[in-house]
């Protein structure tokens, strides 16, 4: 038996993007499909959730959920009353209030993509998900708007970091959303930056003799600049540490930072050049491998001059 579309119905038609049919139809629920068809049919009237709800016989919350689904895919633009894109109004945050267990079950049954996220999370955790875990995953997927591929990559990243727990996953998701992550490639860029930042901080800790801890924003900024961006040799940091301790009788990070930045301004980047500079600006015994007698007054003037500039 053969079937064909009755051409008489083309006398009253409206445009609909083929990309939605090709890419999104298989993952969209019945409600989401009906809602998007309704909005395209009534595109001249704008998107009115209350009217759509009445015409289709759905609850307003169901229509809002469908709008959220299509907005995540970029099909619907969501703006506030001032015409500002809703996604740019507020930063994403870690929330205590999450979707209910009923919401999770309903969405898992309707949305194949979210069901896949739940299934993958159970595999990564090696057990059934707790209520707060599945609720948080729905929050990440639906409210924060991370798509399927990014959510799956996030789960894999958490496992690779040895942090397959929902707190780390939610915090990372929030950071990615605030950084504008929309794809795996953008997420990978952030991950690589974090890996390089951690490696740089570990090298700085060793050079400065700092007990392992989380760096301050300024410390992290310096370690990235010196070791990741400028590719300084670790010995440069050690030399700065020695100058600091000999001058101040203790380690002061800010003082070491000023020393290094002054060396860079003078074009001194290689440890050999800095060692030669220290030899020529030492007092007392200038024999080889003796750099303890720094001209402290000279260094103080150099640092103080930098503070005034």
Q: How would you describe the overall organization of this protein?
A:
- The chain is elongated and about 95 Å long.
- It is mainly α and 309 residues long.
- It is built from 15 helices and no strands.
- The chain starts with 17 loop residues before the first helix and ends with a helix.
- It has helices at residues 18-23, 30-41, 49-56, 60-72, 101-110, 112-125, 131-143, 148-160, 166-178, 184-208, 217-229, 234-248, 253-265, 271-280, 296-308.
In the residues, how many domains can be counted? 3
| Number of β-strand runs | 0
Q: Overall mean pLDDT score?
A: 84
Q: Count of DSSP helices?
A: 15
Order of helices and strands: HHHHHHHHHHHHHHH
Termini gap: 86 Å
Gyration radius, to the nearest Å? Answer: 29 Å
Low-confidence stretches: 82-89, 283-293
- Major sheet, described briefly? none
Proportion of residues in β-strands: under 5%
Structural class assignment: mainly alpha
Sum this structure up briefly.
By secondary structure, the chain is mainly alpha-helical. Helix content is 62%, strand content 0%.
List the helices and strands and how they pair.
Elements: H1 18-23, H2 30-41, H3 49-56, H4 60-72, H5 101-110, H6 112-125, H7 131-143, H8 148-160, H9 166-178, H10 184-208, H11 217-229, H12 234-248, H13 253-265, H14 271-280, H15 296-308
Q: Which key features would you list for this structure?
A:
309 residues; mainly alpha; Arc Repressor Mutant, subunit A; 15 helices
């Amino acid at each position: 038996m053969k079937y064909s579309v009755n051409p008489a119905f083309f006398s009253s038609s409206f445009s609909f993007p083929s990309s939605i049919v090709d890419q999104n139809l298989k993952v969209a629920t019945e409600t989401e499909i009906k809602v998007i068809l309704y909005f395209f049919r009534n595109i001249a009237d704008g998107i009115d959730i209350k009217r759509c709800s009445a015409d289709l016989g759905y609850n307003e919350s169901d229509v809002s959920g469908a709008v959220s689904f299509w907005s995540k895919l970029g099909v619907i633009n969501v703006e506030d009353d001032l015409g500002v894109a809703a996604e740019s109004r507020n930063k994403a945050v870690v929330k205590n209030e999450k979707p209910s267990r009923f919401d999770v079950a309903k969405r898992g049954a309707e949305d194949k993509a979210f069901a896949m996220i739940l299934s993958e999370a159970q595999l990564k955790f090696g057990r059934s998900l707790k209520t707060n875990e599945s609720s948080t995953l729905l929050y990440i997927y639906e409210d924060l708007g991370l798509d399927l591929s990014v959510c799956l990559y996030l789960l894999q990243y958490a496992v690779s970091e040895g942090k397959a727990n929902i707190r780390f996953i939610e915090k990372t998701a929030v950071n990615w959303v605030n950084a504008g992550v929309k794809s795996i490639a953008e997420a990978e860029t952030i991950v690589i930056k974090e890996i390089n930042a951690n490696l740089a901080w570990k090298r700085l800790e060793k050079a400065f003799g700092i007990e392992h801890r989380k760096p301050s924003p300024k410390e992290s900024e310096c370690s990235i600049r010196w070791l990741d961006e400028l590719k300084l040799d670790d010995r440069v940091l050690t030399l700065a540490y020695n100058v600091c301790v000999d001058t101040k009788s203790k380690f002061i990070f800010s003082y070491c930072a000023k020393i290094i930045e002054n060396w860079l301004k003078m074009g001194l980047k290689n440890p050999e050049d800095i060692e030669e500079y220290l030899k020529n600006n030492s007092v007392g015994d200038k024999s080889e491998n003796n750099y303890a007698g720094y001209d402290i007054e000279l260094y103080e003037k150099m640092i103080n001059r930098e503070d005034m500039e």
